[in-house]
Structures are given as structure tokens and as C-alpha cells.
């Protein structure tokens, strides 16, 4: 019969668990985002959809870019109540979405009709576009989870709105409060957020701050020159699920020192 663990062994096990790094990212949910966004998901243990903040017009929450006839083309999922006074979680998809779906999928089929992985990519994307929910967050949450699963990512997903809103004096303090709530030991943000956060504020809470610099390699597109930062759909069409998966580990963490 196996002996029960001693108190010292239990304490050692607990100490080890408490020291286990917990990598966290918090981002607004994006519609079929660019590869750098998927790399951020790849880099963390928990990814929180920041859906209890206000919507930003002309951002990437409900739009993105594809290649049509070899040139970038901006597509937008129409919303019923798009306003910078509305929280992302409260945004609704516009009426007549069935017409938008039909036209968008037709454009996708035309633009990538000769793409080598069009069948594989379409099989993944089409059901996500047919999401019946009237709520934008359900579209974004569902599609990002499905993309992560297809790409073999084991990241845990949460919605910020599923927990009580954390009050804080400013944006950085709110992120710090969320990090503490999630038990994060390492907070990772995209590289363009370096001006938003101060490392010493995180260090004071025993949290490391790192910024992800993407080095996603160029791949063969349906254009004469490589167009970076398109929707992940472009990569899925051109290099497939495995090819897209292979691009994800190509990044580094930057430690930003404030002057």
C-alpha cells in the first residue's frame, strides 16, 4: 500500500505549482485576424477576449483584409449598433446578414479559386461564417476558438465579461487587475503596445512584462509581391492548415525598457 505524502512533500508540491509560469494575453477579439494575433495565442497559456471595453471604429474587431485580384481588399462584417459608446460584448450583427454571408463567400471563392488549399480552408471557414448568433462576440469567440483548435493550439480562452468588471484608475491598472485575477506571472502584449505599459508597474505585482515581435515568414501568395498582415484566411488558402501552423512559432519576446 502506497504511503500518504508527508506535509513537507505536500508543501513542496504546492510551492512548485505556485511557481509554475502562467502566461497571459488580453486582447480585443478580432475577425479572422492576422498571423501575429494567432502567434500571441500560441505564446500564452490563457487568452482573455477583452470584450467589456468599448468598440473602436475602423479597428479590426469586425473587419480584415484579403487579396482580391492580387490586391488587398478590406471586408467588414456589418453591425446593427456600431458605436464607440457600445461595449464589444453588446454589439449585434446587422439584419440581412444572410445576404452578406452569400456575397462574402462568393467573393472568397472567386478570389481564391486557384489557391492550392482552397478546399481545406473553405471547409474550416464556411461554418464559422454561418454562425447563427446575433451577437458579434459569439462570432469572434467561436471563430477564434475553432481556428486555434484547427492549428493545434491548447490555449485556454476566456471572456473578460464572464467575470465581474474590474475597476481601476486607468487602462494599465485594469490590465494589471485582470492579470492578478487570472494568476498571471507573465503578461505578453503585441509589440505595438510598448508605449501603453510600464514594466516596473508589472514587476511591483510580481508579473513579468514582455512584448511579442512577430517574425512570421513570407509565404507564396496570389500576388507578385508579398502582402503582410492579411487575415489568416489568406495563409490558410495559400499554405493550408499545416503551413499556417508552421509559421506560428516564429516570434521573439522583447523586454522594453522605459527611458
Helix and strand arrangement:
Elements: H1 7-19, E1 23-27, H2 35-43, E2 46-49, E3 63-68, E4 71-76, H3 97-111, H4 118-129, H5 136-150, E5 156-159, H6 171-182, E6 186-190, H7 199-203, E7 208-214, H8 232-247, E8 251-254
Parallel strand pairs: 1-2, 1-6, 2-5, 6-7
Antiparallel strand pairs: 3-4, 7-8
Helix pairs in contact: 4-5, 4-8
Q: What can you see in these coordinates?
A:
- With 259 residues, the protein is α/β, with parallel strands linked by helices.
- It has one domain.
- Helix content is 37%, strand content 16%.
- The chain has eight helices and eight strands; from the N terminus they run αβαβββαααβαβαβαβ.
- The protein has a six-stranded mixed β-sheet, sandwiched between helices. It has a two-stranded antiparallel ribbon with strand order 3-4.
- Helix 2 (35-43) links the parallel strand 1 and strand 2.
- Helix 4 (118-129) runs antiparallel to helix 5 (136-150) and helix 4 (118-129) crosses helix 8.
- The longest helix is centred in the C-terminal third of the chain and has 16 residues, at 232-247.
- It is globular.
- The termini are far apart.
